[in-house]
Design brief:
It holds the Pfam family Methyltransf_32. This protein has 21 helices and nine strands. It starts with a strand and ends with a strand.
């Protein structure tokens, strides 16, 4: 934010500094409220481009797609000094690159925090298929309770843990180290009281079944950085009644429930929360009821009368860092899909206006259309290359035609591309209507609606990009609200910090909120 020609630096070390930052973001967002309340699906129906400064749009519509996609992303510093132990093939089985990266980094952070607070018990909230719980149990030798709302996930976790146990049992039979299989619980956590009761009851059962859990730390090395500890695991009195809450992308209000549990439960000595799905947060003033809302949670943000709305919270979930790596053609295709969806909204508005009020979701059709479009252009370009070859076209010309600089092919014929876009739009609409269980109206004029939309389709990219640039700002205010909530608890001595621990290209929701009690 500009300040006398220079950049103003904000801090969140104290509650007052965090609140000052929140107010600064609120002031920054005020002129752009029209972006926050809008949804790109209504781009043509509501003529959304007219709310943006014309000079901005005229300037940006001339920029190539790959340049536009760099606008929303920023530079994010990685977790300082974290040493990540690579996962063996047994633990990593079934993990994709993103999941493996997340589990390796987060497990190291959790292990470091557990050492600091002297607790061997971890409660993995929203554990999914148990990847994190199993790495903490078998590799870091922590006692883990894995809680998830899906019974299917619980079954997968148990079955996978039994397979891994055989490997580690053979590996550690001659060592002094030991481990416990994660305990799985299927439950939808609705409140801090529920999470406390589940954790406490299972902790008592675990202590009866495993009165001694031995952990050999002679070969362990401390992590470097702010969260590193020079002390071994047993440096603090190991109180078996204490525990650490951890959540890897705990969805919606669940991340906030973890923070409330941390504050209300004396036995919880630390929390490591990486949020996700901000669009699913309950928001005060928007969702009615007597429940505790997921946003805002801090007194400071509430006193500022801060409201975002679902569209703005959805915008905070975007993956700005990933867009920078898209080439121009892939970027254009991304904008084209948004164009199709916005034009389809006009079809719904004309033929099924009652559907619009329900905010219909037609699913992710992007991949299917991308494959179809990719295949069609390759076939078209191959036919043209064959024609050129028959006419003694040079090898250089054929190579230029078939080998685009981008990984995503472009049509070599503009007129054919225009006709192809219309054909894809019609298919998009028919598919969307089918997914909504609606019939294709006999009197629908797809060509007329497409002509109306195509005239302004070049503005979709610039508008989408400018709006997406606010996504990281919105995520920041959501995270600062949670941080401030913890900082406001003056009756408890805690240390809080927000730290990026993942590569944002691999894992866009990469900021961990970490808090410890003293």
């Amino acid at each position: 934010m500009a300040d006398g020609g220079g950049a103003r630096n904000y801090s969140c070390k104290t509650a007052s500094e965090t609140l000052k930052w929140i107010h600064a973001i609120i002031d920054f967002l005020k002129p752009y409220r029209f972006f926050l309340d809008a949804h790109v699906v209504n781009f043509f129906k509501d003529r959304l481009w007219e709310a943006v400064d014309k000079e901005w749009m005229d300037c940006l519509r001339k920029e190539p797609a790959d340049k536009l996609l760099q606008i929303p992303s920023g530079v994010v510093q990685a977790f300082p000094g974290l040493r990540v132990a690579p996962l063996n093939s047994v633990l990593a089985q079934g993990m994709n690159q993103k999941k493996k990266h997340e589990i390796q980094a987060l497990a190291g952070v959790i292990d470091s925090i557990a050492r600091r607070v002297g607790s061997h018990k971890i409660v993995d909230v929203g554990s999914g298929q148990g990847y994190l719980a199993q790495v903490l149990s078998f590799e870091h030798e922590l006692s883990v309770i894995a809680i998830d709302a899906s019974s299917h996930h619980g079954s997968i976790t148990d079955a996978r843990a039994k397979r891994i146990e055989k490997y580690y049992a053979a590996k550690k039979c001659k060592s002094r180290s030991g481990f416990c299989i994660p305990k799985t619980v299927t439950c939808r956590v609705l409140s801090p009281a529920m999470l406390k009761d589940i954790s406490s009851s299972l902790r008592q059962v675990d202590e009866m079944e495993n009165p001694t859990i031995f952990r050999d730390n002679t070969d362990s090395k401390p992590l470097a950085g702010d969260l590193a500890s020079e002390c071994p695991y047993s440096s603090k009195a190991d109180d078996k009644s204490t525990m650490v809450l951890a959540g890897l992308h705990a969805c919606g209000d669940l991340s906030v429930t973890m923070l409330r549990t941390f504050m209300e439960c004396d036995e919880v000595k630390a929390v490591i929360s990486i949020g996700c799905c901000y669009n699913l947060l309950s928001e005060e003033g928007i969702k009615e009821g007597d429940c505790q809302f997921g946003f805002p949670v801090s007194r400071g943000a509430k006193s500022a009368n801060l409201q975002l709305g679902k569209n703005a919270r959805d915008l905070a979930c975007q993956s700005a860092e990933r867009w920078r790596g898209l080439g121009e053609a892939a970027g254009l295709h991304n904008f084209e899909l948004h164009t199709f969806r916005a034009a389809f909204q006009m079809v719904l508005f004309q033929c099924y206006p009652e559907i619009i009020t329900r905010s219909p979701a037609i699913g992710r059709q992007g991949k299917a259309f991308r494959r179809q479009h990719h295949r069609r252009i390759l076939e078209c370009n191959a036919d043209m290359a064959q024609t050129f070859s028959q006419n003694c076209c040079s090898t250089y010309a054929k190579d230029a035609l078939l080998n685009e600089h981008s990984s995503y092919p472009k049509s070599a014929n503009k007129e054919a591309n225009s006709a192809d876009r219309y054909s894809m739009f019609v298919k998009f609409c028919k598919s969307g209507l089918g997914r909504l269980g609606l019939c294709v109206p006999q009197d629908i004029e797809f060509s007329r609606l497409w002509e109306e939309a195509e005239e302004f389709s070049g503005l979709v990219g610039p508008y989408w990009t400018l709006r997406a640039a606010l996504g990281p700002v919105l995520e920041t205010i959501l995270l600062l609200d949670r941080l401030l909530f913890l900082q406001e608890q003056g009756n408890v001595l805690i240390q809080t910090v927000l730290l990026p621990i993942f590569d944002p290209v691999l894992s866009p929701r990469n900021v961990a909120l970490i808090a410890e009690k003293f």
